[in-house]
Design brief:
The protein is α/β, with parallel strands linked by helices and 438 residues long. 27% of the residues lie in helices and 28% in strands. The protein is built from 12 helices and 26 strands. Helix 9 packs parallel to helix 11. The longest helix is centred in the first third of the chain and has 13 residues.
Length: 438
């Protein structure tokens, strides 16, 4: 099987069993690298995931002047402090990483350099005006290409703003807060719905003054971050695929160790438990402001549910795998208010319509899906496309566990973007994973 080839997943001979780990949290990794570059002193990030998106952020901070030493899954980053992106010109290749581009724009907005952010064809389709507009309000010069990348950010003297987001977005919120670190006065971001708060937690961990509000967060300008140690928990979004894999096979029992349990990231667990999933947490603890623990999952029947718009920001990355859970459940599951899925690495609403090829009833709308589950009946075999999207590739791999004739995923190597080793982890639990030929 080539790295970008076709993978075929079929059900295991028995239940899925075993203990596995997942890569370090991708969202926190991005933020640790970017904030570490702006800090004074050395930031040590452990359990760094090896996916392509994080490599993009690592390359970005090195391009901007930070020095990084990578030893296995540990990176030691010597920050530049206020000198980061202080002058000159630079070009940052963000690959497929929207987090690198949007947060990177906020990071350099308070410097004096002119930085061009660009990426692959998929990233060039994603909207960037939502981050460019507030940075302009703060005093940076930001030019997009018809609202998309390439995006040029010319930093300068910034003034803090009080900004209300039209769309709940942790990336946009974080970009504004990062710019606020080098702005005059306070910068406050108000969001219509709560989003993941890793940036706020990490800012406080590295010495910034952060105030939490019921509708968002505020950062004081002029902060000088200090380097520190950031031990990354296992990525909750990656763990979600293995959680649903265990639920898909009756009699399974899977333990996923050291997973991040930040409450702004565990909405998918709330949804699955509402569907009847047996998921417990053991060994709960906190490190560097982030809770973590071991997920213990037992396979069993699921029932349909409704995922409301208010739940979408807390489940946005897990919605593709929740669609697979819905395909296995009894009744019709609805997802509403998820129009943001249309502008991810792929149009994820359209991509998940491929469940119809597996014999699942699917109706799509502009901002959601209605999925009629098969409630214990096997799924049909089919070949599907990942559209180069890591979460689509992994979601349909899990669906293959309930399809006796197997599910073939084209461009399956996309999974490496966020979960290097996903196919090995699935096979280690007992799934039948292999190349399907040309």
């Amino acid at each position: 099987m080539s790295a970008r080839g076709l993978v075929r997943v079929t059900p295991p001979r028995g239940a899925l069993r075993g203990a596995v780990t997942v890569p370090g949290d991708k969202s926190i990794a991005h933020r640790a690298l970017l904030l570490g570059a702006l800090a004074e002193g050395t930031t040590v990030v452990t359990n760094l995931p090896g996916g392509g998106d994080v490599r993009s952020s690592l390359g970005a901070v090195q391009t901007l002047g930070a020095h990084a030493r990578v030893e296995g899954t540990t990176v030691r980053l010597d920050g530049v402090g206020p000198g980061l992106a202080a002058a000159g010109r630079a070009a940052v290749d963000c690959g497929n990483s929207g987090t690198t581009m949007r947060l990177g724009a906020g990071l350099v907005a308070g410097g004096g350099a002119e930085v061009t952010f660009d990426g692959d064809a998929s990233l060039r389709r994603r909207p960037m005006e939502r981050v460019a507009a507030p940075l302009r309000r703060m005093g940076a010069r930001v030019e997009t290409t018809d609202g998309h990348a390439p995006m040029v950010v010319a930093g300068g003297a910034l003034a803090g703003i009080d900004c209300t987001l039209a769309v709940a977005s942790a990336q946009v919120k974080s970009a504004i807060l990062l710019a606020g670190l080098r702005a005059r006065g306070a910068t406050r971001v108000r969001e219509p719905l709560p989003t993941r708060d890793h940036t706020e937690r990490l800012l406080a961990h590295l010495g910034a003054t952060v105030r939490r509000h019921p509708d968002g967060a505020e950062v004081a300008g002029g902060a000088r971050l200090r380097g520190g140690t950031v031990p990354l928990p296992g990525d909750a979004s990656s763990a979600a695929f293995l959680v649903v894999a265990a639920l898909a096979v009756p009699g399974s029992e899977v333990r996923i160790a050291d997973v991040g349990l930040n409450p702004t990231r565990t909405g998918f667990l709330d949804v699955l438990r509402r569907m009847g999933a047996a998921v417990e947490v053991a060994d709960r603890r906190d490190e560097a402001g982030e809770p973590r623990g071991t997920l213990v999952v037992r396979g069993g029947p699921l029932r349909a549910t409704a995922i409301a718009p208010a739940e979408v920001p807390g489940t946005i990355d897990e919605l593709p795998i929740l669609c697979v859970a819905a395909a296995l459940a009894e009744g019709e599951t609805t997802i509403a208010g998820a129009g943001e899925l249309r502008v991810k690495e792929s149009d994820r609403i359209a991509a998940m319509e491929q469940l119809a090829a597996l014999g699942v009833g699917v109706r799509a709308s502009a901002d959601g899906l209605a999925i009629t589950g098969r409630a214990g009946a096997p799924l049909a075999g089919a070949r599907v496309a990942s559209y180069g999207d890591h979460r689509i590739a992994m979601a349909f791999a899990v669906a293959g566990l309930a399809a006796p004739d197997g599910v073939e995923i084209a461009d399956a190597g996309a999974a490496d973007v966020s979960f290097p080793g996903f196919w090995r982890a699935l096979a280690a639990l007992g799934a039948d994973v292999g190349g399907a030929g040309p």
